[in-house]
Amino acid sequence: MRLKRVFIFPLILLAVMAFSVTAMAMDADPAPGEEQAVSAMDDYTGDIDLERAVKRALELNPQMTAIRAQLTGSQFGTRSAFGNFLPEVGGSYGYTNYGRRLTSTTRRHDDWVANVNVTQPIFKGFNLLATWQRAKLTEESNQASLDNVELTLISSVQSNFLSLLKARMDVKSAEDSVARLESQLKVISAFYEVGLRPKAEVLDAEVDLATARQDLLTAKNSVSTQMAQLNTLLNIPLEADANYVGQLKDFPFSLTLQDCLSRAYKSRPDLIIGKKSVEIAEKDSTIAASSFYPSVEGEWNYYNKGVDAGLSRDGVYPYTSKEYYTVGVTASMTLFEWGADYYDYKKAEENVKQVEAQLEETRLNAGFEVKTALLNINEAADRIEVAKKSVAAAEEAYRMAVARYQAQVGTNTDVLNAQSRLTTSEAQLSQALADYGTSVSTLFVAMGEKNLGLNKAE
Prior knowledge:
67% of the residues lie in helices and 11% in strands. With 458 residues, it is an alpha+beta fold. It has a domain of 282 residues: Up-down Bundle (Outer membrane efflux proteins (OEP)), CATH 1.20.1600. It has a 4-stranded antiparallel β-sheet. The radius of gyration is 38 Å and the shape is elongated.
């Protein structure tokens, strides 16, 4: 009975450990699809401003689902690497038929053996530690990749949202242009009917009006296209008429180049990824060097033998042979591999140098992106001031041209030219405002910061 209890204990231990592994798997993070299925019920009715649009995209865009799954996978990889530090438990159960009798006092030829094995790694040449640290670094790198994808998505949503607002301004400008040309056509037609103006002026006005109407149709189509693009980014059905609200405007921007560079070097995800890549390469070098060290393992084995499936002794085995355990430590080392391990290590070292150089290049490009975005902001701000003055002057010039024409001291060409210049000035203003907002968005992305609503520039 004592020996049977000794045999049962390892089996119970093995069952408990197997159950623990199953419980850990069940306790793992939920599948990405489950979270998205709940989020997909999110309501998109009501006003959607820039900040709400960006938040929805970050929650529901398929890009985010993919990168979150990658991050979750790396977390499981870290757990797996940590598990290599723990004992490995195995078991076996087998049957052997011998051509001769087991002992001189029995006719038995059958041998049944059950075995439980526990192996504990003691030293693996720093391989286990470096592998676990590498897995942790990969997890941190994937977290930075998640931030990088978020910034890219934020930039895309903000750019398209600003393009939509610009397209709406263009529609308003085109509608005003059509209204002005229709009014002018009525005046010219009235003058022509009483013989004060030639037919050619009527035809010129009709051509300009037709062109303005085509521009209006193009502007309206641009609005529809931008809305479809936003619906796609926000995971909203294409046929849905989402109510995007907002208007282009300029706002003060006070950051200096040095401020922007400092924040970029601290926060940019690609720089964080680059630093983690260098550390990962260094861990790969450590893993490659582990082959230069001996490997040490501790092992415990339990055996129980019998002459039938129930492992009964039946007088064949003495107690000392039927049931026993062994404990030992094994050290092993590969002494020579014709340089395979050495050159693998040298390759890993060179890879570290390569990744370090790539990190430095990424840092230089980051500084260039910040500088370019800041210059574009300053340019757009200056263009806005010029465009506002241009619109005011063009409005006054158009008003004067119409008044001169109605007083019969100006020409139809003067009116049409003034109208064209006013439309151009309005388009330049809307473009400058859109470029300003886009440049601010680009700068914050270049700094690695999330400014969802573009409602601050500090």
